[in-house]
Write a structure and sequence with these properties.
Structural class: alpha/beta
Number of helices: 10
Number of strands: 10
Radius of gyration: 18 Å
CATH architecture of the largest domain: 3-Layer(aba) Sandwich
Number of domains: 2
CATH superfamily of the largest domain: P-loop containing nucleotide triphosphate hydrolases
Largest sheet: 6 strands, mixed
CATH topology of the largest domain: Rossmann fold
Oligomer: single chain
Shape: globular
Helix content: 25-40%
Length: 251
Amino acid sequence: MNPSNIVLSLSGVHTHIGAYHILHGVDFDVPAGQVTMLLGRNGAGKTTTLRTIMGLWAAQQGSIRFKGEAIGGPGVKLGTPDIAQRGIAYVPESMGIFSDLTVKENLLLAARGAQTVDDLDTKRLEWIFGLFPALKKFWLYPAGKLSGGQKQMLAVARAIVEPRELLLIDEPSKGLAPAIIQNLIGALRELKATHTTILLVEQNFAMAKALGDQVAVMDDGRVVHRGAMAELAQDEALQQRLLGLSLAAHQ
């Protein structure tokens, strides 16, 4: 892999949360303009990895570099807002939307330079409405009244309301109906076509196969496999060994 094409690089990352040692030397790279899947069984450390990248938890050892600049690791004093300012957006599993605010107000809050809707990039807003038509329909609804799928769409829309170089998305399909998942896959494909780089944690393996270019598989706080997603998708024995199940069973 060409080092100049790497947007995000984790090297030897260890994270402790209280008395617990969660990440044990995590190593992987995220190439520009691609979707990198972060897979693994529950409790493998995937969410901790995303939160460590964002500075929500500190990396006690190792380094996290974004476009060549250290953003995490011993001696790095960047807070989460500083990391976000560099062009990284995070969509947590909890979605993190403000339930009492409207769809419009949620998007305005996420647009750092906008005070009113008139300050938003009209073309970009229409593009987001094209990806997620429900958001236009429910523009003035409190976000808490949206369905689960609509809330997930809003969470992703907030992350992309301004151009971002890297999106970290944690299990976007969790609890969603199959038809909504297909819509989400289509939206993420369109986003990928704009050369946005995505690091995606996902338990839905059909979605992983549909979207992923690269894959890193975690187990017990370590990366135990790195490679092309297409190769993992075609190797059922490897899927069974790494993940305990087969992609073929999740078509």
